[in-house]
Specification:
heterodimer; A: alpha/beta; 7-stranded mixed β-sheet; 4-stranded antiparallel β-sheet; 11 strands; 20% strand; disordered N terminus; B: mainly alpha; MetI-like fold; 2 domains; two-stranded antiparallel ribbon; 2 strands; 3% strand
Amino acid sequence: MSTDSLAGLTTPAGPAKRPFLEVKDLTVRFNTDDGVVKAVSGSSFAVERGKTLGIVGESGSGKSVTSLAVLGLHRTRSNATVSGEIWLDDKELVTASDEEVRKLRGGKMAMIFQDPLSAMHPYYTVGAQIVEAYRVHHKVSKKEARVRAIDMLARVGIPQPEKRFNEYGHQFSGGMRQRAMIAMALVNDPKLLIADEPTTALDVTVQAQILDLIRDLQQEFGSAVIMITHDLGVVAELADDVLVMYGGKVIERGPAADVFHEPQHPYTWGLLGSMPRLDRELRDRLTPVKGSPPSLINLPSGCAFHPRCPYAGRNGDRSFTETPELRGGVHAVACHLPAEDRQKIYEQEVAPNL
Amino acid sequence: MLSYLIRRIVNAVITLLVVTMVTFGIFFAVPTITGSDPALLYIGKTADPASLEGIRTKLGLDDPIPVQYGKFLKGLVAGRDYANGADVTHCDAPCLGYSFKTEQEVTPLLISDIPVTLSLAIGAAILWVLFGVATGVLSALKRGTFLDRAAMTGALAGVSLPIYFTGQLALLIFIHELGWLPDAAYTPFLEDPAGWFTGLILPWVTLAFLFAATYARLTRANMLETLGEDYIRTARSKGLPERTVIGKHGLRAVLTPLVTVFGLDFGTLLAGAILTEQVFNLRGLGYQALTAIRQNDLPVILGVTLIAAIFIVVINLIVDLLYSVIDPRVRLG
């Protein structure tokens, strides 16, 4: 893991200062009756304040598990083991006590979930839930918290916030509900905001509004944002850096512009190829990544992507026997193909079809 | 809301009417059709034909069945007179007739039974809800541990063991062997609260054990399901202490389905806990019902059935109204 070079990725100040959030060699395992689920294996990344990291990958690639690990939400699951290091503002979280992490959760670091209908409690008003979130971290009266909550609802663009304060989640429209969710996450001015597919359940026009909102709020509060999504459009729109995950591992990492313009990993090529684009000539069909995501209990040997990789076997058995490491500087990739070959394949075979 | 309430009340009245009709039909009409004679039940087999005829006229047993039913309904609403020539007996509304056996008016008889049954049901309900829910929550949180298994085994025993076994056992141990408690008996609360309590504690515990078991299992299952919900993860992500996450966000969602079950159980129990009252010799509605059935005392059976139906209908209405308070997604209408 070339984590040391990571500090230089976003901090020009040099390696002496730790990035605001630094995750090193994070590994998450779940013991189940069927076997050990290797949900995340040795993933490393960093985010600075005011920057946005996009994590992309298909379902089951370990995106959400990674973010829940940062928040320490696996601690309540007795079958989960988390190892590695998570540094938030020079504090290590994996070894910290439950109580220490709980105090950071919702305060210094907060999370926006997908599907706000099920993420909000059906029996409490939206206002009550925001007030509760505020009062866990601030010793204020209910009245003050109420003022703050209404202020937040107005800030995220909910009309008539005093009235909506007393309504329940099911009385909100999808977009308004996600705004309320964002208001709840931001009520304590978190320095790290994790958004887990915040726009998945929303229609396109509302998606754009929500993304704008997150960007505006990020600029206002200077927070670090981790945007988890399987929508590359969202990443292209918001992210400074991109992490591509596959089978619980980071397989490509780099500045968003590099990853989009010179993608290195065959899986990233596949993702880009399966993305509908209006700015290119219309093709008959999109090119999906063939095959299905790997089982996290029985990961394929060698490179987890080899059963679906059209280039596997180009250099002997390596793809089948040896797990590729994430190599490279600012723009790193975990692939057995030599850099020159990748360059050639991308230019000749992949790029013309994107 | 108001129109909903009115509609529900009208519905309840219709339900009760149907209940009286069916019960009346079974208990009064069937003997007439099959040739057995209610008048004989009333007066006994040794009666001479003249007094038998007199009873028949007085109770209106000569009338066609629909007329008898009409008179019964009128008696409920406005009271009625039983007349045989100059011999008139007035029965105030709500009149349920006279017991065939004791010749007492049924209504006051049953009303005097209600406090016993009510005391038994309320006391037991408080116990089983507290212990059932607490056990269920603990079991869910300690899922798979020894505590969970022990609690669920106990609950299985509670569900499986009949009252007449656990009740007798409790009587034997706590009253006869250890002598910790006086004989189970009903003392009116206002007369002697301590006596009321000590006289009922054993029936409460026995009855509660049966129900607590069901509630523990139900709570455990609901809690496990709820803990997997997204809003519980949200509550944790806000940094709430685990106590608040479980006790507030979790329990709130678990209680909703319990209210429905509780309404049904409690309503049924108010109609008389037949076995418990029998085992502990408490003269409540259930005891009365069993005695009446044994003695073929038709008016008392009819009366108990009607009161039972009223309790169940009313409790169901209350539960439905409560539901709109508990679950904001439910709109009445």
